Recover the amino acids of this structure.
């Protein structure tokens, strides 16, 4: 991976005690911003990315030369309107796009951390990102927004910093990783570990990459982001550039070819060890457990306005898990709205052009902003 | 805004916390928020209508009153409003109990099946009545449990709930219902509005 790119980076000097017990300091957080912070500093939105996302929310991603991951939702006149709002997004710690992660060089040994990197959690991620608020002199964010793992960070952030956001938008997420979620993540991790190039995480020194294992991990995960109906409609049993079955193990079906392609492009932009660390952080996420099993207690200190969004065909973080958050908030009389968006696009719906979702997001944000 | 909503709004004092169950496009919610500084929440089953509420900047939860009222703590609202929806539930009694658990008071409005036009329609035509408040055919109506003002009053009394105010609405005319005029109101009102408490 090309790390010589000119990434905006904040070096955090303040020590951060991680959940695993280790303390880190002088660590980098790579971030990107869009739009302009107004004089009152009340128009900032902190966007949290999902498992394989990065700080390049919209515009051109300089690594992939493709649109940023939330191109549909963020930009001028879009749902998160960068003409109005100042959008900040940073690469999570544990990530591989300039923030402190397993592909970072240990300053003590001058060697890439690999699996010597400390285990990090969603809590550690948001505590690290909180430093960006001080950096920009923002006392209170107008909003915090994120889907999937980004939504988990949203929940953890408002729990840790109840006064630091006016509105809170967790999308297609959960307050606690289910056995099924952990199972899929474990499948991905085992695929990486089964690649001999992984070398117990020390592949940088050998100049190899466990790209086969990482590609399989991505392929498996990718299936969980789509719905059965969506897959069937897009691919069905269509054959890949051939008239008939070839009676072999080549990619006869378009879906096979599609998944192989998704796997192959992923390894060019993502670090295998980061994949292990971030999926682990997701698996460890259990917000209720942090409050002795009472999820409501996670939010009892905040006056923020919540808006929770789920998707009908999302079976990875299904509506009921999103509703459990709504229920916990209603139990303490919090200001919470909820809508389930009709979509065939599965968990990935939040990343795609789903007009009902984008208009709900836009209307909620714009109305909340003018009602100030 | 329809007269029914004006009457409901008049029953609610300023600065209260109110839940509008089946809040539709949020017309009543918006009025209460803007004119009476009400801390207002809505519960609505239709995705389209939830979106319309979001456009108005209202806090709405997509959900079904029969299942989703459960999540609200006891007496967490000063008032819970249910406008012309009671008859559409599978179990109206359960919903009434939930309204009175969640709200300190409940405001329930019902289309009156005892209204003279309805009686006349059934008597003369012998087919299911269709009126301004009940515009659907028997085969596509969402209404499962129609009742008259008299039925509702009897029900509330039989459950020992307190009726603070009963109002009869006939087009623009609002009048009080009491024990002595119940029969008349049951004939001439097309809508009943009740403020009740457990």
């Amino acid at each position: 991976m090309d790390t010589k790119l000119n990434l905006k980076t904040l070096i955090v000097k303040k020590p951060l005690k991680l959940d695993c017990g280790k303390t880190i300091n002088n660590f980098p957080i790579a971030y990107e911003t869009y739009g302009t912070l107004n004089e009152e500093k009340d128009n900032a939105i902190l966007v949290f990315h999902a498992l394989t996302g990065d700080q390049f929310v919209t515009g051109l991603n300089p690594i992939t030369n493709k649109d940023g991951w939330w191109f549909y939702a963020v930009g001028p006149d879009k749902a998160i309107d960068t003409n109005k709002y100042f959008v900040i997004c940073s690469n999570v710690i544990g990530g591989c796009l300039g923030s402190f992660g397993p592909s970072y060089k240990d300053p003590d040994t001058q060697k890439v951390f690999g699996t010597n990197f400390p285990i990090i959690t969603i809590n550690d991620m948001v505590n690290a990102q909180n430093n960006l608020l001080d950096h920009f002199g923002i006392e209170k964010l107008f909003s915090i927004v994120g889907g999937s793992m980004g939504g988990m960070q949203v929940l953890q952030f408002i729990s840790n910093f109840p006064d630091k956001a006016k509105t809170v938008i967790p999308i297609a997420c959960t307050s606690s990783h289910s056995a099924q979620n952990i199972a899929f993540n474990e499948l991905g991790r085992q695929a990486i570990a089964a690649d001999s190039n992984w070398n117990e995480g020390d592949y940088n020194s050998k100049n190899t990459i466990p790209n086969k294992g990482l590609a399989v991990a991505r392929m498996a995960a990718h299936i969980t982001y789509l719905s059965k109906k969506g897959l069937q409609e897009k691919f069905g049993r269509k054959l890949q550039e051939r008239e008939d079955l070839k009676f072999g193990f080549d990619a006869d079906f378009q879906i096979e070819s599609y998944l192989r392609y998704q796997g192959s492009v992923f390894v060019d932009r993502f670090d295998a060890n980061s994949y292990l660390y971030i999926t682990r952080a997701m698996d460890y996420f259990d917000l209720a457990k942090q409050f002795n099993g009472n999820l409501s207690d996670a939010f009892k200190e905040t006056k923020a306005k919540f808006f929770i969004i789920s998707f009908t065909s999302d079976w990875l973080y299904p509506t009921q898990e999103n509703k459990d958050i709504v229920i916990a908030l209603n139990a303490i009389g919090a200001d919470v709205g909820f809508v389930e968006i009709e979509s065939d696009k599965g968990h990935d719906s939040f990343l795609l052009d789903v007009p009902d979702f984008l208009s709900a997001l836009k209307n909620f944000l714009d109305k909340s902003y003018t009602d100030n | 805004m329809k007269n029914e909503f004006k009457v409901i709004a008049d029953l609610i004092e300023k600065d209260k916390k109110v839940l509008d169950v089946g809040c539709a496009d949020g017309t009543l919610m918006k009025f209460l928020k803007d004119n009476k500084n009400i801390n207002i929440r809505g519960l609505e089953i239709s995705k389209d209508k939830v979106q319309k509420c979001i456009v108005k900047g209202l806090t709405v939860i997509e959900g079904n009153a029969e299942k989703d009222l459960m999540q609200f703590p006891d007496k967490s609202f000063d008032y819970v409003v249910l406008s012309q929806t009671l008859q559409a539930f599978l179990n109206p009694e359960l919903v009434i109990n939930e309204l009175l658990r969640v709200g300190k008071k409940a405001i329930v409005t019902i289309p009156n099946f005892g209204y003279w036009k309805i009686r006349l329609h059934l008597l003369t035509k012998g087919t299911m009545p269709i009126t301004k408040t009940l515009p659907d055919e028997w085969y596509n109506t969402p209404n499962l449990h129609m009742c008259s003002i008299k039925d509702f009053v009897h029900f509330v009394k039989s459950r020992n709930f307190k009726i603070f105010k009963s109002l009869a609405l006939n087009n623009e005319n609002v009048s009080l219902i009491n024990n002595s005029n119940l029969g008349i109101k049951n004939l001439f009102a097309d809508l009943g509005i009740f403020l009740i408490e457990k």
Observations:
- DSSP finds eight helices and eight strands in chain B.
